[in-house]
Amino acid sequence: MTIAEASKKLNLSAYTLRYYEKIGLIPEVSRTKSGIRDYTEKDLEHLQSVICFRNAGVSIETLIEYMKLYKKGNSTMEARKQLLISQKEAIKKRLEDIQNTYETLSLKIDNHEKLLVEREKELLKKNK
Fold this sequence. Notes:
Elements (H helix, E strand, L loop, with lengths): L2 H8 L3 H9 L18 H15 L4 H13 L4 H51 L1
Helix pairs in contact: 4-5
C-alpha cells in the first residue's frame, strides 16, 4: 500500500507517516524496487496503536521510549508493562479531571438557566 493509500486509510498526512517512521514510532516501512514506501497490514496495525495512544494523550517521547524497549525484545516486557501502567494511570487522572470539569460546567449552566428564568419573570412583572 502506498503512503497516499495508508494516509487516506488512517486519516493521517503523509508527512506524519514519514515523521512517525523517522523517529522510530513504527518499524521502518519496506520499499518497492523504485524506493516507494509499501505499507503492510502489520505497519497499519502499528500505526493504529500509535494513533490510539496519541489520541489518549500519550506523548511522542513516551511512545519513542516504548518502541525502543519493544525493539529490544522480550527482555523488556516488564519495563513496557510498567510504562503502559503509568500511562493508564495518567489517562485515568485526566478522565477524572474531565469529569469534574463536566460537572462544574453543568452546574454553571443550570445556574445560568435559573437566573435567566428569574430575570424573565421579573421582566414580565414589570410589563404588566
